[in-house]
Design brief:
The protein is an alpha+beta fold. Helix content is about 60%, strand content about 15%.
Length: about 180
């Protein structure tokens, strides 16, 4: 990699980190190309990204972002997972690290707050932004359907009572 490529890589990663809510630093010792490809596909499906990084370039890209505190975590074979949703990247990385010993979570940055590996695992157990939105919509819709059911029930009962009286009157007139 020549100097211009390095500068372009740093600028690209820096711009991505500016728009990110969470960065998870991992060690990926011994992951095969197929495993990394599988992990990237899972990350993409969750709205996150996974990138193998050169430590020195990643540390330079961190400067001027809210994740500058992660600088000390870049030792050894590192990769970063990042997403705008503060839970998406943590969920995928934690699930993948559980099933594959070759991927280890080192730490993370959630905004300006730094998390250790246990903090990332705890964050992964939280519902994602989409799941929270779905629960909120469900909670809002449930009372409306209950109200509609309650309002329809008396009307149906009144209609049945009127129909019964009408039948009774018809039978009384017929006799």
């Amino acid at each position: 990699m020549d100097r211009t490529q390095k500068e372009a890589t740093i600028a690209d990663l820096h711009s991505k980190l500016q728009d990110t809510g969470l960065v998870v630093v991992t060690h990926h010792l011994g992951l095969t190309v197929a495993e990394v490809t599988d992990l990237r596909a899972k990350m993409r499906a969750a709205g996150a990204s996974f990138k193998v990084t050169k430590n020195r370039l990643a540390r330079r890209a961190l400067k001027g972002t809210q994740f500058e505190g992660l600088d000390g975590l870049f030792k050894g074979p590192t990769a970063i997972a990042y997403s705008k949703d503060p839970v998406a990247a943590a969920k995928v990385v934690a699930a993948y690290a559980k099933s594959n010993d070759k991927l280890a979570i080192v730490g993370a940055g959630l905004g300006t707050q730094m998390l250790n590996a246990d903090g990332v695992k705890a964050l992964a157990e939280l519902p994602s932004l989409d799941e929270l939105r779905a629960k909120l919509v469900g909670m809002i819709q449930t009372p409306a359907t209950r109200i509609a059911g309650v309002l329809q029930a008396p009307g149906g009962q009144v209609a049945r009572v009127l129909a019964a009286y009408a039948k009774k009157d018809e039978q009384g007139e017929a006799a």
